[in-house]
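2024-03-11 09:14:02 DEBUG pipeline.ingest accepted 1 chain
2024-03-11 09:14:02 DEBUG pipeline.ingest length=568
2024-03-11 09:14:03 DEBUG pipeline.predict start
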Amino acid sequence: MKKIFYGALAALAMLAGGCATDEIVETRYLASDVHRVSLYAFDEEQKVMREVADTVRGVEVRAVVNRTQKVDKQTYVEVRVGRERVYARAEALVADARAVVAERQIFVRTPASIVTDTATSAIGGLADKGTALEVLDYDSIDSRTGAVNRYRVRQGSVEGYVFGKYTVFDREQAMLRYQPEKYDKIHSAVKNPFGGGEAIGCDFYPTEKVSFPDNQMPRSCYSLYLNISPAVIGNIERYIELAKRTRINTFVIDIKDNECPGYKAEAMRIYSPTNYARAGANKEKMYAHAVKRLHEEGFYVVGRITCFKDSYLVKDHPEVAITERATGQPFKHNKAYWPSAYDRKVWQFNVELAKEAVRKFGFNEINFDYVRFPDRMTKVEQLIDYHNRYGESKVQAIQRFVQYACDEIHAVGAYVSIDVFGEAANPGYTTAYGQYWPAISNVADVMCGMPYPDHFSNGYYGIKKPWNHPYEILNAWGARVRDRQSVTPSPAIVRTWVQAYNVMRHVDRNGIAYDAENVEKEIRGLFDADLTGGYITWLSSSNIEKYYQQEGAFVHDYYAEWASKQGR
């Protein structure tokens, strides 16, 4: 449709009927059941209305309510848009600015959560692709596009909110897939040998990546990980001292790990009393001081939350757990109990914890770890119950959690990064635990792969003892990530966890130490594969002395060096 340009409308004043001294002019707002409203000029000679422009709904106009034209049983009212005179359909003019959204039914294009309470992110149901939703109200419209931010809708007995960006105005359009001639061919060829789900079942409509003017993410994040020990975050000045000697610009701080909650968060008190009870009694002040000092020194600060591995949450709410079919009891895997990634109450707890941390401490970003189902489950899959209420595949559930988390956390002004296994970069199949790289990258702000060299088996990518060849293994892995990113319509930034601990003895008693030289090799392997979003050190102890020994790896501006090589 033609966009409105006031200068181009100047010649329409004569067609619109000229001036009148007995005009009755009243304020009206342009309304429509789609995003834009058509404007017309009356052709006196042909006695027809010709569409001459359109504009977004919600625009305030001056309606000359006693100057109308009736054409083909349709009444048009003269309106003044700026200095120009045109016509609008009578039903497109409303006196109440809240009445500009006229649609009464919408259709779901991208499966989305129906949030029953926007204050607590509570989820009442799933709006699946093609579903018709009754429109009850809306929160706001975009003055640039006329699009609704969130609709208040009804689906059966469920009333709640769904983001307008996931909906369209007719069912046929809702059932379309994004560029199927390109992306369906790619994702339908992906195999599902381990039960993670069909890749084609995910949604690949592009996601507009957010940018917050008052929360600028570094172009490339050079990051140190800090655990919640008082010896670590309680000793923040030493880490700041090291960072200021180097190019470190980002810190990642634990908020909740499995059986290791940080401070006594209100979200823990409400949703998981055991996490609350086990959290540090005096940690809140410690967190507040640490984040405040980091911000004062100009660092970007990320809060890390472990999602779907949480024994304490299962203790409080065994009904959200993955359970044994034979006994109905929570299933223990890898020495921990796992809440089901299908369960929306688990989603809500982790997202509410994240939102609270952003509001309370000012975290710039939330990093979610264990965004997956348990691994190594193929032999027991038939013996357990995931409580899959909506009949989703694992890859669908994980993508939809990330979508929900991003929407809710973006609303409080923070970014979202998602940790994934290094294996997720492999082509040709979906993982058993539900991480399909292109589907997650399409939605998340940042992808944080975990390709620790000592996690690769001997001979992987044709590299003998890859843990002793950090550059080669990370560079080869990076090439695969680059390929996964290329089949993602709206790829996330890639910021990678790098091994900062020595090779584990059960892997190789004679493996190399990860000193400054070898950490640097990892990082250079990533940048040489064009993964320029940065790195995060994985050193579970966060030992300051070990970090100082690796200082030589942190002094380089890898992005500037990469850009120079690219001639940028």
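2024-03-11 09:14:41 DEBUG pipeline.report The longest helix spans residues 344-361.
2024-03-11 09:14:41 DEBUG pipeline.predict end
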